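Why show two proteins at once? Because comparison is the fastest way to build intuition. When a single record is shown, students tend to memorize it. When two are placed side by side, the eye starts asking what differs. So, the first record is below.
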Amino acid sequence: MKVGEISEPSDFGTFGRYVETPVDRMPADMRDAYEFTRKLRGMVPGPHKIWPANPKLSKAIIPTSAYFQRESTLTKAEIEIVTNVINSRWLAAYSNYEHEIIAKKLGGLPPEKVEALHRLDMRGWTPGTSVMLEPIFMFPREVLALNGCCALSQTTVLAADSFAGAIWRIDFDDEGRAPRAKPWLKHESMAHVKNTLPPPPQPGINGLRYSQRTGFAYYTTTGQKLFMRVRVDPATLEPVGGPERVAGGGMYDDFCIDDGRDRAYLTVHRENRIDSEPLRPGGILRPLAGALLNEMMLGPSSAAWSRAPGEAGQVVYVTTDGGQTAPPPDGVVRTAKVLRMELQQASATAGTA
């Protein structure tokens, strides 16, 4: 599926959050619940693949879902408004991603009403307590699918539009409010390209990070297999010149920057590994983890530094989708994971957190 060509609700799978049972291996009651869903919905969408594990509950809840989508008096636009408001309240990123696309393509909602900037005030937050999500800005119509973002300063953020192939700049006041947004840079190296890979569609520009030490903003373009950089003017925070290719050849997703070692650690999502790449062109790329197929390293999607005392520059946390985007050879998707990667000189070890 390519964004802009959607004709019916798509099946994005379970994204590694659940170990799926192949249909031909389902017990009789589970298979019956699966077929019950398929008959009512015409397919078994990702979230509904979890329900057949409890056949009685599945048969109780699926008719409600089918009624909401097909028999209620709400219009498709109203259905998607309700769905996205609930998703946003519970910070449900996966379902928001899918239903924002459906809202625009099937519900006919204006993109500027779907693509929004939200503010989360983390001051005073403690683990286990809730965080209030506050919408503070609606992006203009040309914004299609915001993805990676990074801070250039305490009041300036860049955001990558994966399907429009562009970077946006958002400036705030000192309280993180009163946002003002404008296009920052658009380049062919950021473009979303049509490919023949299985869904979900692979993004154009994806991960986005800034290194104050080098003075460059770095980004990945997954579909084009690129790792790029563009110089940032330290006074105006505007781009200087055009983007420059740092590396290529892998379906890079997100990454984190190691200024101390002058390297970036890139999650190569569909290829189940993490690459260590110099921050300048012409360097030697080497696999850091997952060079051999490792069940623990299936579908690495993002990387972030630990903020714990004494772990700066030493510990990286990596998320995985369990092989949902690119299933392993046995076709069985594992559960998604958070991995803890400890860096020692030029090597790293990974373990489940």
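Second record. Ask yourself what differs from the first in the token line.
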Amino acid sequence: MKIAFCRGGSKVDEKFASFQSLACHRIILHDGPGFKEAFNDLVKGLSSGDQIVVYRFSDAAHTVSDLIDTIIGLHERGAHFFSVQEKFDTSSLGWPTIRKILGSLSEFHRTMTKADNGNGGRPSVGRPRSLSTKAVTEARRLFKSGVSLNDLSSQFKVSRATIYRYLQK
């Protein structure tokens, strides 16, 4: 059975037309809170041979990791996944091909996360530090050798208060 699932909002008529042209047996439009939970409940109820159809990837997942987990979970149930916008259909591809695609997406996501936050893939929290650990060590060494706060703030291009705060730690 083909079951379509999408968010409300814009292009609802276009979404419905797409789902009808794909001969979906059931079309579920979810608008409002609890979208992810409703989608997960639908996925849990699918049987072998069923196919879930979404208008775009974001209707199925908030992150690449979510999407990958969803597709793998469907495969384990013997169900399939189809995205209208991305033209991604797990029923027409062999599992080794899908696994390669998902692995590539996962690697891409990890690379982008690392590049985005410069934090080695860990989530960024708060404001980035003004001075690196190496710069703080150098500032402490210079301060102990008699260099003034004004000179340190000029050299490291931060305020005197910032230099003072790092020297206090």
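One difference worth noting in the second protein: Helices lie at 12-21, 35-44, 64-77, 95-117, 133-144, 149-156, 160-168.
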